[in-house]
Amino acid sequence: MKVLHIDSSILGTASVSRQLSQAIVEQLQAKHDNVQVEYLDLAAQPIPHLTAEILMGQNAEQAALGEQIIQQYLAADVVVVGAAMYNFGLASTLKAWIDRISVAGKTFKYTENGPVGLAGNKQVYIASSRGGVYGDNSPADFQEGFLKTVFNFTGVEQVDVVRAEGVNMGEELKNKAIEAALAQVKLI
Ligand SMILES: Cc1cc2nc3c(=O)[nH]c(=O)nc-3n(C[C@H](O)[C@H](O)[C@H](O)COP(=O)(O)O)c2cc1C
């Protein structure tokens, strides 16, 4: 089983989403034989933002990197994404990764009947952390909802969220939220 593990929090060892994404990967390793993990730390090694030059294929180095990122995504059986909520959305480094995997003809195609995803047959886990409490369908959520839309768009139907929220609302709430999320991980 190929697992692509991605972290994007800027908070290093204090990060909640990193703690959760790591726990998910460890759970997969405990449950399955032969788990091969590839790891992207987008905070430590950000992928350059998409530019017109990159989009038009005029930068050979970036074209090669973009292809590598797409192939890595396509090859993964499971993608585990550590996604902190920053300003209601994602870390910009995670958006930069999304801009590189969302490529027509590679991970989706346009047809007469609309877009069709080409990267199905994988499971995505979103390890979500949020300072406030939003629940499942908040209009202020441009983090989990956005990620689900992007993964669905590339054909991935199985997108599950492990969430710790309210982590900036006092130590007690934070600890409870993390405990509940880690209990959820044990059910994976
Ligand atoms: C730059 C920044 C922006 C944030 N914006 C929000 C926000 O819009 N809504 C929210 O509920 N929490 C917000 N928070 C709190 C984080 O979501 C919370 O600290 C969460 O644990 C971040 O994930 P991490 O610990 O993996 O970095 C923000 C934190 C930072 C550092």
Low-confidence stretches: none
CATH-level-4 superfamily name? Flavodoxin domain
Helix/strand order, N-terminal first: EHEHHEHEEEHEH
Largest beta sheet: strand ordering: 2-1-3-6-7
CATH class: Alpha Beta
Structural class: alpha/beta
CA radius of gyration is: 17 Å
Q: How many helical elements?
A: 6
Percent range for β-strand residues: 15-25%
CATH architecture: 3-Layer(aba) Sandwich
Distance between the termini: 15 Å
GO molecular function, one term: oxidoreductase activity, acting on NAD(P)H as acceptor
Catalytic activity: 2 a quinone + NADH + H(+) = 2 a 1,4-benzosemiquinone + NAD(+); N,N-dimethyl-1,4-phenylenediamine + anthranilate + 2 NAD(+) = 2-(4-dimethylaminophenyl)diazenylbenzoate + 2 NADH + 2 H(+)
EC number: 1.6.5.-, 1.7.1.17
Keywords: Flavoprotein, FMN, NAD, Oxidoreductase
